[in-house]
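Late entry, written up from scratch paper. The run itself happened at the end of the previous shift, but nothing got recorded in the book at the time, so transcribing now.
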Amino acid sequence: MSDNWFIDSELETVKSEYEKIQGATLDACVPDMVRISIYRTEYKQVAVCFIFPEDYPDMPIITEIKSKTMSFKFTTGLAQLCDEEVKKMLGEEQIMHVLLFVAAFLDENPLCVCSDEISWLKQNCLKQTDRIKLNQQMSQVIVKFKEGSYKMTFQLTVPDNYPFDNLGIECIENLFPADFHNMIKMQAIEIARKCVTPPIKPKPKQPKWKLTPSVKPVIEFLDEIFHYITKQTCALCKKAVLPDNPENVITEPKHELHADKLYCDHYYHYGCLDAYMKTPPFEGGKKCLSCNERIFHDKWKLPPTLIEKRWAHKQARQRELDEVVEFMQ
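Output as recorded:
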């Protein structure tokens, strides 16, 4: 190297100034290599390695970024940004400039902790009508789903200590019936919780629980359930469970066209299901016409025997009325 005096001077600068960067640790500082680790959270931490090229500082310093927690794709991309940034500093000391750039990037881009998940979702999950937007300043992932005239927008707030802490999940736009909206939100919250909280009583032979980043599974679920619901037809009348125009969505729970979901994830109109639940056969309980599973629903809690008795009583009363009408004629 032609300018050893310049490199020696820069090494002294690094030793005296690296502590100005929050969470920085000096691992090595010799002419062969400089390595400084930057810690933000247990998951968000990187090691920045520098090698002096020949003709330094007239040539850009070689930068490599490593991390045991963040993805190779992210660290490679950040190193490329550093390569572009350091070109502004030719002829000058470059290490502290790059370190300050990396530290600022980690602070200004909190969503870097889920960058791989976002990239995967864009390529493999979201439909052409869906949109995903990142708000780095607020550490939020905003996902907009669209199918026909229906829309639903969720806002996921990624915590500082991601993936160890729970996501914040809010629905900020919804054209579904309120019960569907609440069901979707609560299931998404439960998926996120299971990613970060081990079960209190693990089931026998169940795989050992491990912490899982939650952005990907939550958005996968939201995407699947949103598009699934918009395409559902009533298993009895075979008509769409939701009207084409969201403005015509039925909110009255006992309206005949109100959309009802069973525990088996199949959908019916209230009127269709009510008639089906109250007509024979009743033995063994009513079965879903789509999957043949026993029907469970909060609106129909009576046991089959009582429903059958009520149906029989109603039929007897109707026969009495028919006889009276016939006699009067």
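DSSP finds eight helices and ten strands in the chain.
(Scratch paper discarded after transcription.)
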